[in-house]
C-alpha cells in the first residue's frame, strides 16, 4: 500500500472520529438535557406523563378531558409505553416529567443513581375485592392450596424483578415456604389462563378480566399477595423526575393538586371511566362496563413504601439499601 | 508479517471506535449511556461466571440445534423443489407467503401449541432460518452449470449419485450464502424467543437487567451478542473455506485467465 493512500485513510478515520465526538457532545451528556417546563404555550405549561397500557390510563385521560390539569396551568400529554421500566430513560432525560409506576421502579432507579422521586399516590388496592388488581391464580385441579405449596414450582409474573417477584416471594415466606425454590418466568397477564390450562405454569400472576377467566375454567385465586404483603395502599404511584420536582416544586404541587381533583372525579364517575376504556385498551364495551375500579388517592403511606424497600432488599432486587428519604418527594 | 498486517486491519476500526467511545464518555454522562470500562467489568462478572452454564450454553445450544435443523431441512426440501419443475410451480407461491410471515409473530401461537419449552424456542428460530437456506438452495439447484448437468446425463449419472456428486456441490455456493443469512436471523430470533416466558437464556437475562435498571449489565449482554455474532461468522468462514474449496479454486483459475 502506498503511503499516500495510507495517509488518506488515516485522515478519513480521524475525521470520522472527530465527527463522532462532535455528535456525542450534547446527546450523551445526561445533564445537558435538563428538564425545561417553563416554556409556556398560551399560558399553559406543557407536561408529559408516561403511563403503561392499563385501565389506569382512563383516569388521567378523564382528568385531562375534564380540564383539571388545564385549571392548574398544564397542557398534559399522555405517553403510553409497555412498562414503566421502559420509560425510565425518558423520565431521566426530562422528555417526560411524571410517570405512573409501581413503587418498585422509582426505588430501584434511585439505587442505580437516577434522580427519580415518588411524587404522589395513585391506586389503592381495596382489601375487600380481589378483582381490582393483580392476584396469584392456579388452574383447575391444582394441588396447591396456599402459597407455601409453590416451592419447586414454575410461577409466571408480568415482569422479572417487579412487584410480582417480591410480592409472591413475601407471600410464600410468610406462609412458611422457601421462595428461593420458585422458578419465575415472565409472561403477560393475559397469557396466564391459557398457560395454566395447558399446564405450562403451576401458578401465575394475572389481573381482571383474566382472573374471572381462570375461575370460569375451574381455577382459583391462591393469594391476593399485594394485599397480604401490606403493599396494597400504594400499589401504584406517580413518580417524577427528581431534578424537575425540586427545581419546580410549586409546579409539582400544582400537578399533585390537579391529580387530586382527577382522583375525586374518577372515584365518583366509574361510568365515565368505563366509557373511555374501549378506545384506550381496545376492549369490547361490555368488558369495559365489567371493569372493577380500584380506589384512587394521592396519599403516600411511608410505612407501605418502607415495606417495598425492605422486600426489595430482602429478595435482592436492589444491591444497596434504598434511601427512602431521597425517594419520596417533599414540598 | 502479512498476518500481523491483516490483524491490524481487522482490529483497526474497532480499536479506533473504542478509543473514541472512551473519550466521549469521560465526563458526566447519563447512566443509560454505556461506558467501555464498566461495561467490560460487567461483561466479565456477568457472562464469564455461573451464567455461562445457566444461560449462555442453553441459548447457544438452541441456536446451533435450530441452525442444524434448518440447514438439513432447507437443503433437503430445496433439492427436491429445485429439481422438479412441477414441485417448484406447486410450492413457490406458498413458500413466498410463508417466508414473509415473521416467525416472532407466531410466538403466542406456538406457546399454546407447543408450550413454554425449548422446543417452542427452537421452532421459532427454525421458522426464521429455514427460508434463506431453502430459497437459496432452490435457486442454486436451478442454476446448475448446464454443461456439467448435460455431461452428467450423458455419462449416466443418476439418482443419488447425481444429487451427491453434481447437485449438492453445484448448489453449494448458493446454499452457503443462505446459511450465512440464517446465522444473523437465528441470533435475532434466539434473543427474541427468550424474551417471552423463558426461565433461562441470554435474552431472558438481558430483559431481566432492563427491568432492574441494571444498565451496564444490560449493555454487557448486547456486547455478548455481538461477540457471539462475530464468532459464529468466523466459524462459518472456516467451514465455508472447506466446503467451497473447489469453487474458490475455480474462481481463482478463472481470474488468472
Summarize the structure in words.
The complex is a heterodimer of chains A (331) and B (257). Chain A is of the alpha/beta class and 331 residues long. Chain A folds into two domains: 45-125 and 233-327, D-Maltodextrin-Binding Protein, domain 2 (3-Layer(aba) Sandwich); 135-230, 3-Layer(aba) Sandwich (D-Maltodextrin-Binding Protein, domain 2). In chain A, 43% of the residues lie in helices and 17% in strands. In chain A, the strands form two sheets. In chain A, strands 2-1-3-10-4-11 form a six-stranded mixed beta sheet. In chain A, strands 7-6-8-5-9 form a five-stranded mixed beta sheet. In chain A, helix 2 crosses helix 11 and helix 2 crosses helix 12 (270-281). In chain A, 47% of the residues are buried. Chain B has helices spanning 2-24, 36-47, 51-83, 85-100, 107-113, 118-142, 146-154, 159-195, 202-211, 215-243, 245-256. Helices cover 83% and strands 0% of the residues of chain B. Chain B contains eleven helices and no strands. Chain B has a single domain (38-256), classed as MetI-like fold. Chain B is an all-alpha fold. The two termini of chain B are 29 Å apart. The A-B interface holds A 13, 16-17, 20-21, 24-25, 28-31, 33, 83, 85-86, 88-89, 92-93, 105, 108-109, 112-114, 154, 156, 159-162, 183-187, 191, 194-195, 198, 200-201, 317 and B 13, 16-17, 19-20, 23-25, 27-33, 108, 111-112, 115-117, 195-199, 204, 207-208, 210-215.
Amino acid at each position: 500500500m502506498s503511503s499516500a493512500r495510507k495517509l488518506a485513510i488515516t485522515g478519513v478515520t480521524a475525521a470520522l472520529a472527530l465527527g463522532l465526538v462532535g455528535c456525542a457532545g450534547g446527546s450523551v451528556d445526561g445533564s445537558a438535557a435538563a428538564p425545561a417546563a417553563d416554556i409556556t404555550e398560551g399560558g399553559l405549561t406543557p407536561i408529559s406523563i408516561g403511563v403503561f397500557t392499563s385501565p389506569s390510563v382512563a383516569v388521567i385521560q378523564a382528568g385531562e378531558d375534564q380540564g383539571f390539569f388545564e385549571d392548574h396551568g398544564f397542557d398534559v400529554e399522555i405517553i403510553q409505553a409497555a412498562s414503566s421500566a421502559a420509560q425510565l430513560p425518558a423520565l431521566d432525560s426530562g422528555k417526560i416529567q411524571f410517570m405512573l409506576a409501581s413503587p418498585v421502579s422509582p426505588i430501584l432507579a434511585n439505587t442505580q443513581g437516577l434522580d427519580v422521586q415518588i411524587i404522589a399516590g395513585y391506586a389503592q388496592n381495596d382489601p375487600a375485592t380481589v378483582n381490582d388488581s393483580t392476584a396469584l391464580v392456579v388452574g383447575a385441579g391444582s394441588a396447591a392450596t396456599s402459597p407455601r405449596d409453590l416451592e419447586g414450582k414454575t410461577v409466571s409474573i408480568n415482569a422479572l424483578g417487579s412487584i410480582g417477584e417480591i410480592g409472591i416471594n413475601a407471600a410464600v415466606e410468610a406462609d412458611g415456604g422457601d421462595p428461593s425454590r420458585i422458578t419465575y418466568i415472565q409472561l403477560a397477564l393475559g397469557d396466564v389462563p391459557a398457560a395454566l390450562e395447558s399446564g405450562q405454569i403451576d401458578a401465575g400472576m394475572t389481573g381482571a378480566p383474566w382472573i374471572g377467566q381462570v375461575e370460569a375454567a375451574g381455577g382459583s385465586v391462591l393469594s391476593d399477595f399485594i394485599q397480604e404483603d401490606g403493599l396494597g395502599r400504594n400499589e401504584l404511584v406517580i413518580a417524577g423526575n427528581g431534578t424537575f420536582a425540586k427545581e419546580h416544586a410549586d409546579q409539582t404541587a400544582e400537578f399533585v393538586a390537579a391529580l387530586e381533583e382527577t382522583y375525586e372525579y374518577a372515584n365518583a364517575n366509574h361510568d365515565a371511566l368505563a366509557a373511555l376504556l374501549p378506545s384506550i385498551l381496545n376492549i369490547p364495551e361490555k368488558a369495559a362496563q365489567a371493569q372493577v375500579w380500584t380506589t384512587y388517592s394521592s396519599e403516600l403511606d411511608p410505612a407501605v413504601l418502607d415495606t417495598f424497600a425492605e422486600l426489595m432488599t430482602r429478595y435482592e432486587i436492589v444491591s444497596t439499601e434504598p434511601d427512602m428519604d431521597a425517594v419520596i418527594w417533599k414540598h | 508479517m502479512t498476518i500481523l498486517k491483516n490483524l491490524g486491519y481487522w482490529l483497526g476500526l474497532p480499536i479506533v471506535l473504542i478509543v473514541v467511545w472512551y473519550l466521549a464518555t469521560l465526563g458526566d454522562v447519563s447512566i443509560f449511556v454505556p461506558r467501555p470500562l464498566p461495561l467490560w467489568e460487567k461483561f466479565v462478572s456477568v457472562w464469564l461466571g455461573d451464567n455461562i452454564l445457566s444461560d449462555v450454553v442453553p441459548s447457544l445450544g438452541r441456536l446451533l440445534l435450530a441452525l442444524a435443523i434448518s440447514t438439513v431441512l432447507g437443503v433437503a426440501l430445496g433439492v427436491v423443489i429445485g429439481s422438479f419443475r412441477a414441485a417448484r410451480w406447486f410450492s413457490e407461491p406458498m413458500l413466498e407467503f410463508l417466508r414473509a410471515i415473521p416467525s416472532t409473530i407466531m410466538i403466542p401461537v406456538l406457546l399454546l401449541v407447543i408450550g413454554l419449552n425449548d422446543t417452542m424456542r427452537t421452532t421459532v428460530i427454525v421458522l426464521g432460518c429455514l427460508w434463506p437456506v431453502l430459497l437459496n438452495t432452490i435457486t442454486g439447484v436451478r442454476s446448475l452449470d448446464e454443461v456439467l448437468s448435460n455431461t452428467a446425463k450423458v455419462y449416466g449419472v443418476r439418482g443419488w449419485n447425481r444429487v451427491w456428486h453434481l447437485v449438492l456441490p453445484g448448489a453449494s455456493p448458493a446454499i452457503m450464502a443462505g446459511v450465512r443469512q440464517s446465522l444473523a436471523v437465528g441470533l435475532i430470533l434466539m434473543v427474541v424467543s427468550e424474551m417471552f416466558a423463558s426461565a433461562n437464556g441470554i435474552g431472558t437475562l438481558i430483559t431481566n437487567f432492563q427491568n432492574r435498571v441494571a444498565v451496564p449489565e444490560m449493555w454487557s449482554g448486547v456486547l455478548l451478542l455481538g461477540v457471539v455474532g462475530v464468532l459464529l461468522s468466523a466459524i462459518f468462514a472456516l467451514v465455508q473455506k472447506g466446503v467451497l474449496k473447489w469453487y474458490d479454486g475455480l474462481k481463482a483459475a478463472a481470474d488468472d485467465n
